[in-house]
Please model this.
Amino acid sequence: MSMKRKNFLQLVLISLFVIIFIAPVSLMFFKSVSFAWSWPDWIPSQFDLRAWRVVFSDVMIYQSLLNTIVIGLVVVVLNFIIAIPAAYGLSRYKFKGKAFIESALMLSILIPVLAIAMGLHVSMIRLGLTDQISGVILIHLLPTLPYAVRVLKAGFDRLRHEWEEQGSVLGVRRRTVFWTVMVPLMTPSIRSVAVLVFVISLSQYVLTAIIGGGRVSTLPMIYYPFFTSANEAVIASFSVLFALMPIAFLIVFEIALRSYLRVIKRP
Model:
């Protein structure tokens, strides 16, 4: 491939990225700080932060943000704890019923989550998990865990089994090989799982409403009612806040991941 063609493709990809991801968020941001911005004006005639004041004047916004962050982080951690050994076992070992297990993991994706949640609701009432953050965290594993296992299994499938055997031949414990060799090589899959799980957990409205019973307030619980507002700036402000949370999570997770990689590389 010639250098000119390569540069052209890079320009096209960057342009598509800006159009699909950057432009909509930027448009919402300008809409949230504008007053009476309408077509055919290219820029707002007046800037105003009243929409952001309306959003943060809601008495539930701070508690909802805290609940959303805590639930999302715990769901991500639990997904890694459960999905890593499950994905590793499905990737490395052959056993009876393996195909059935892989198919069963897809059921929560193929079957409407609402139907499963309604069935689990009765069990969670008996266990005392309804109207509790713990119950919401557990129900958020339902739509996230299958994706985590699938993505991590694909990552393990790309790694050759001989790389682990070389560590064993050199006398290195399997646990050390896993954390110092396998995990760095699995970085793209780990990053993808973390962001995907957090976004899915962040966007759950129905599951949170059913299990949380309206007592566990998260950002989607107060986000959707804002759509009844006639003020487009208020809707845009809430949309920007909603969009910034995955970006902030990705930045923090990337810093933590890079710090871990630097630590294990030290002699």
Observations:
- The mean pLDDT is 82.
- Residues 122 and 130 are 9 Å apart (CA to CA).
- Residues 58-265 form a domain with the MetI-like fold fold (CATH 1.10.3720.10).
